[in-house]
Design brief:
The protein has 355 residues and is α/β, with parallel strands linked by helices. It folds into two domains: 193 residues, TIM Barrel (Alpha-Beta Barrel); 115 residues, Lyase, Ornithine Decarboxylase, Chain A, domain 1. 25% of the residues lie in helices and 25% in strands. It has an eight-stranded parallel beta sheet with strand order 8-7-6-5-4-3-2-9. Strands 11-14-17-16-15 form a five-stranded antiparallel beta sheet, with no helix packed on it. β12 and β13 form a beta hairpin.
Amino acid sequence: MTKRPLKWIEIDLSAMAHNLRWVRKQLGSGTRLMAVVKADAYGHGAEQVSRLAMSQGADRLGVLNLEEALHLRSKGIRHPIVLLCPPLPEEAKEAARAGLEVTVDSMDLARALSKAAKRPIEVHVDLDYGLCRWGLPPEQLESFLRRLSRLPRLAPAGLSAHLDYVPGKNAVEAEEKLLDFKRRANRAKAAFPGILRHCANSSILLDFPHWQMDMVRVGNLLYGINPTAKEIPLRSPWTLCARIVTLRDIPKGRSIGYASEYLAPRRLRVAALPVGYADGLTMEPAERFIGLGRTFHYYGWLKGKQVPFVGRCGLGHVLVDVSAVRGARLGDAVRLPIRRTAASPRIPRVYSSAG
């Protein structure tokens, strides 16, 4: 067996493949699937996840920016890649050279792409329904498409929007915006029959399955994250582990950690782990087993039991109380919570087979 490092992240590709298969079963006939692999596939590794997604029948890969797309191209991935954020006009030449599908929301960018293209570039026109990050005001869509159609070597391939919907918060407003998007998208599709209408991300797919339209964009569900209150059979592909490097018996009443601010309430068995906030630990983990509220604290798991954090998390270490774990030893692996996109890329990823 290969020796594990002192800290690592286990990525279960078979769990991710399961999630992808489940998503595909929810899609209507003819609905396409975009696997969103932005932010290094939410920290899971964009190259590995992209190859898995392609093997499971994803039609497109979605990345945020040109740098992410060029990374995948450098790894030999030739699958269709969509830039979800409009690039700067000065990036048009590289986007064209890489054969990317590009989100556009301005004529400056459209003209730059047309000028840079040596062959037709597929573009997705994005509409802004409240996030105010990028995208056209919806009422400008028809005039924008008319001007876009006059530019050579640009092929309208998609019409997109990302709603400001939060499950359990603004469902009625979201339904109204989805209806408006569909009306405008249908008019655009009459003029450009091949255009793909896509507005459904993971949350909308689950809460508004009737708004799948031509394509859905799945990120959270792929990574085993359920953003809604619905019970669905997802599997988590992600586990952060760190080995115990020291064990100490702490008497009741002794102060522990920085500023001596933690006072042992009883006799404790305390383990040190070589992972800290430089690795992304305690950067607001969004995991089900972390309690939030007035009694909030972080904890990990050792041999199936909770081990609470003791004192502050340091730059490169954290202490955990292993008093309740019989037989805890040096080298034992503790599972820890971490927000996936906050996890340091320096932590080794260990991949299991997708089967």
